[in-house]
Design a protein that fits this description.
Layout (H helix, E strand, L loop, with lengths): L2 E10 L2 E10 L5 E5 L6 H8 L7 E6 L2 E2 L5 H5 L2 E4 L11 H6 L14 H13 L15 H14 L4 E5 L7 H18 L2 E5 L3 H7 L2 E6 L2 E6 L1 H4 L2 H8 L1 E8 L4 E9 L2 H4 L3
Parallel strand pairs: 3-8, 3-9, 6-7, 7-8
Antiparallel strand pairs: 1-2, 1-4, 4-5, 9-10, 11-12
The structure holds adenosine-5'-triphosphate.
Adenosine-5'-triphosphate binds next to helix 1.
Subcellular location: Cell membrane
InterPro entries: AAA+_ATPase, ABC_transporter-like_ATP-bd, ABC_transporter-like_CS, P-loop_NTPase, Siderophore_ABC-ATPase
Membrane topology: Peripheral membrane protein
Amino acid sequence: MYFGFKDISINYGKREIIKDVTIEFPKGKTTTIIGPNGSGKTSLLKVISRAVTPVRGEVVFNGKPLKQYKLKELAKKIAYLPQVHNSPSDIDVRTLVSYGRYPYKQFGRGLTRYDNDIIDNTIEITGLKNLQNRLVETLSGGERQRAWIAMTICQQPEVLVLDEPITYLDIGFQLEVMELIKKLGEEMQLTIIMVLHDINFASRYSHYLLSIKDKGVYSYGDPRKIITSGKLEDIFGIQSQIFEDEKNNCPFIIPEKKRSKWLTLGN
Ligand SMILES: Nc1ncnc2c1ncn2[C@@H]1O[C@H](COP(=O)(O)OP(=O)(O)OP(=O)(O)O)[C@@H](O)[C@H]1O
C-alpha cells in the first residue's frame, strides 16, 4: 500500500466513531472525503496527523505503518493543514511560509540558502510575492488560507492533507484556493486527501470521492460513480437533481429537498 488506512477504528471514550475503515489513496491523485456532519471525517484526518490514536488499525505510508517513522522524517513527506489554524499574531507571511522548512533544519542552524530558494519559489507559485512582508493577521481569509497552504508546500511533501480548506471563504476565494490546490497537485504530483462540504467543488476538483456514513466507507470511486441522486439521498438524506457540467467534465448537483421530520410535521 502506498498511502492509506488499514482497518482503522476510532473511539472517543466508549463511543465508536469509525469502524474498520480500509482505503488506499492513489498516488499523485486527489481524493476528497465527503459525509454528514459528525460522521468522522476530521477524526480520520487527525489519525494521519497523529492527533488521534485509533483503537485498532494503522495508517500505512510506503508499505510501513506511520508509527514506525520518526516524526521529523514524516514531516518531510506528509503535510497537514487542520480545519482551524491560528497564526501567531506578529509574524509576516514569509516567516509563516518558512516554518515549512523546519523539518529540514539542522539543530542550531538557521535557514540555508537552499531553504530560502525554496521559500522564494513557494511564495512565487502561490502568488504571495506582494504579500510576503504583510503580517498574517492583516490578511483577508482567502489570502491567509493561501499563506497557510504555501507553508505546507514549503515542506515539499508527497502527501498533502487538507481539512475543509475553503469553508470560511467567499465563492471567489473558494475558487481561487481550489484552483491553487489543483495547480500544486499537478505540478508537484501530490497525493492530496481533503475534506470538503461543497459537493460541487468536490466533484470538480477530485479524481476520487470517498463517502463516509454509519462509521464506515459508504462508497468510493470516480465522482460520476458517487454523485448520483440515490447515493446522495442515502448519505445526506436529500433529494437532488444531478446534471453534467460539460465544461469541467464532471457531475454537478442541485439540492432540492431535505428528508426531515421537522419539515413534515403538521403536513
Ligand atoms: N475529542 C473528542 N472527544 C469526544 N468526541 C469527539 C471528539 N472529537 C470529535 N468527537 C465526536 O466525534 C464525532 C465525529 O467528529 P468529526 O469532527 O470527526 O466529524 P466530521 O465528519 O469531521 O464532522 P463535521 O462535518 O461537522 O466537521 C462527532 O460526533 C464529534 O462530536
